[in-house]
Fold these 2 entries.
Entry 1:
Amino acid sequence: MNRGRLKTVAKKREIERKLAAHRKSLHGQLVNQTLILGKHIKTEKVSVKAWQKNYGKSIGFKSPASFQSELVRKAESAGGIVLMFSTRKTALSQTCLCGNKQRKSLSQRVHHCSVCGLNMQRDILSA
Ligand SMILES: [Zn+2]
């Protein structure tokens, strides 16, 4: 390896280190903001592995698994708990506020309930 290449490699490593540190501090802030809202947290148990398979590097950088574990660690040290429930059983994106379950394709962005008549953007409804 010549000097120029060595320099580039070192620079790349430095950039990656900075990105990782930055991401870690963003996760920390987000975890803190979440815990202000409450220390008992119920969340969907999402499959980080499946995301990684589908979205690859763009997910890898955001590293949702490390966000999850940070959230659990801080919630527990504050005396709270994090409950993760299965996405299969709850199917938040398929369930109306009235309890009616209605299958939707991912491309269908608006929830329209045939039972109670509710109309809402699907992600807002699930949240
Ligand atoms: Zn409904």
Entry 2:
Amino acid sequence: MNKRTFLKKLGVLGAASLLPSVHFAQSPTQKTPFTLPKLPYNYDALEPHIDKMTMEIHHSKHHQAYINKLNEAVADKKVDNLENLLATLTEKDTAIRNNGGGHYNHSLFWQLLSPTPQAPTGNLLSLIEKQYGDVAKFKEAFQKAALGVFGSGWAWLVWHKTTGLQICTTPNQDSPTMTNLYPQYKEHTILLGIDVWEHAYYLKYQNKRVEYLTAIWNVMNWQEIGQRLANAK
Ligand SMILES: [Fe+2]
């Protein structure tokens, strides 16, 4: 099942259907169609790995700001759904690219974190072992890619039905779901995305991105990542 079929099967929006607390829902008649999703845990739930203040500011200020600016950017448009909007963006659509991407990426990111310690299992573990050797080597490769993001951006793990897992990065608030801008990911499903903007870690880790990227594995929601793979297949 390719990405578009998968999303279609899930309804209005694949990620939203998988993640019921994420609100991408919108009405063309509303002036502010996008709203901030509630976190599935408390702001302090990821302590000590991600601190309460970072989570609170990241969610209630940064994510909210993307939503506010996205609502302004789509005020004159009839918006079908966010994922379709992102998939058809061109180089000229700067405001929606930055703020729609910001809303999409953060809504997904919150779901990929969990206060419950866990590890990859099942098909996801098998794929990781087949392609990277073991989970530690996968984490090493992912961290290397994330450290290589110059300035602000995201590191991703995507999956394709024939080529399997792939680690990639995007600048700013771009994501592999922007398939007109990134046609190489047209048939891919996002399994994991990690925010490597400084606002995600600066209060606790300052400039030490490597420490943030080491700690974040302690709060990774592998169950959710595995479920996204299962749904993609
Ligand atoms: Fe962020």
